[in-house]
Amino acid sequence: MTVPGALLRGSLTAAAALGLVACSGTNSGTATPAPSPPASTSSRNPDVPRVARPLTVSAYQSDPCETVPPAAMAALRFTAPGEPRVGQSASEKAGPGCAWIGADGLSVLLVLETGNQAAGIGGLTGQYTAKGSGQLGFLEPAPAVDGYPAVYSDLSDRRPKGDCTLVVGIADDLVFSAGTSGFQGQQDSCAAAGQVAAAVLKTLKGA
Fold this sequence. Notes:
The chain has 207 residues and is an alpha+beta fold. It is built from four helices and seven strands, in the order H-E-E-E-H-H-E-E-E-E-H. The radius of gyration is 15 Å and the shape is globular. The N and C termini lie far apart (41 Å). Mean pLDDT is 83; it is low at 11-42.
């Protein structure tokens, strides 16, 4: 059962733990912070960075796979095309996504989190709120990606196991997440997530 007003995150597999839970249990998939009124400037969490140059994803919501060129995925050893994840299943309510399945157990999941935006719990503010409420067990500021603020977040810190979820703010109320699974440790998995995120930003900026 989905908890109204909770943060959602798409998930590729339960083992990958790329998402949060959209129900009262602890299954990996989608997640659900209690709704709260939009924060005023005075009450805004000072830890949440603002997005100076907002971007839109409207042109890619029907096929998020188009945000990452095949060459960028080939550099990460993914040769098969991405599989669009666009629908109303629990794992897709965070927003439209794209999944890439590679050899040797590698996988990447990209989610344009417009569902959280529409629910009023989007942006990096939604991530920090979820961490504060206990929905997220792990959140850590990440290096900015091409000038856009980012965090690592997940139910727990799985980076040493080769699973890394990088969440990038592209508007104050909108993020996209790039999750990797099956890589070799923290450096390898998060570097791959960063490469995917950089490719998405390049596309969104029309570069």
